[in-house]
Amino acid sequence: MTLKEIARQANVSVSTVSRVINQKNTKAASPEVQERIWEIVRKSGYTPNATARSLKLGQKAQIQNITPKSIACIYARSNSAVSDPFFSQIAKAIEQEAFKSNYFIRHSFTAMDIANPDIARQLSQFPVDGIVILGRYEKQLLRFFTQNYKNVIYTGLNPIGDQYDQVVCDGSDISYNALSYLVELGHTKIGYIGEQNNEVRFSGYKEALTKLGLPFLQKNTANVHLSADGGYKGANILMHNKADISAIFCANDTTAIGVIHALKEQNLRIPEDISVISVDDIETAQYLSPMLTTIHIPLEELGRVTARTLIDRINGGHRLPMRITLPFYIAKRDSCGKLSRKRKTFADLIPQ
């Protein structure tokens, strides 16, 4: 497929397609048009003509035998490669950054897919040059890739062993910052909703309580899947348990969406009755009512740095394992408020 054919399918000019895929101008097209162009690129398997590109740049030497290389993205935490707004945005940035170096995303799988022998066999029959593991994973998944592939990198919020390349925002630090902000607002009884097993945000939540001199009560937590449905169930669990809290820390924004829905069903006001803070800062967060206070994770940077680091390893640029930790910040919006002395406890507000 050529740029002209992509332009025709996307109903835009060739110059617009060129600017988008070469990322020369981030405002070359609207986000919707850019996504349409990248979707055509994915489906068609289009890769840039490296020889033509080199000639255009005046790089006459070493233009022979230049062939595109491929990467596979594994959504380790998700059941669907497209349903998770957090990791799908990281994957998009990986794809766009890799494209600059003549790499393309050949496969996108979930951990559930890899458990299927037919798909695992497909991966072995159509090898890729590098693997990106997106999100927390089970040990057998990492073992599968490290045994079968030389170049593997992880990105997410759960730092892994020092023997592998990884680009992370540290979930433990994230939890501490979220709870510290709530404490600044006067909250000393803080609940948690999200996954707990092998989840650094939960262990970080407990460690943060200890550092801040606050008690940990299991009844103030709900172990649920990171989804809107999980958040909805988690909020109802805390209400059923009469949790003694004035604020809730949610493991991610999608979970917080379900939490807010459940609280509103019980006519609880946010943040007047209970404050809610979460993690990710997906686009939807700022359009909720109230607008969601959340930890902003630099998703695009996570993807771009991950792609660069993996490509550098593939090309022999580094041999020792690299751990790159990116910064984050609190996007302070409307779902968190100061604790009023007159405010009743969360347990007192729940209908009997």
Can you put this structure into words, describing what you see?
The strands form two sheets. The protein has a six-stranded parallel beta sheet with strand order 2-1-3-4-5-11, with helices on both faces. The chain is an alpha/beta fold and 352 residues long. Helices cover 42% and strands 16% of the residues. 40% of the residues are buried. α12 links the parallel β8 and β9 (275-280). α1 (3-10) crosses α2 (14-22), α1 crosses α3 (31-44) and α5 packs across α13 (299-314). It has 14 helices and twelve strands.
Q: Mind describing the biggest β-sheet?
A: 6 strands, parallel
Number of strands: 12
Weakly predicted, low-confidence segments: 51-57, 59-65
- The helix tally amounts to 14
Order of helices and strands: HHHHEHEHHEHEEHEHEHEHEEHEEH
Mean pLDDT: 86
Please state the CA-atom Rg, rounded to the nearest Å. 23 Å
Helix content: 40-55%
Shape: globular
Structural class: alpha/beta
The order of strands across the largest sheet is 2-1-3-4-5-11
β content, as a range?
Answer: 15-25%
Subunit arrangement of the protein: single chain
Distance N to C terminus: 64 Å
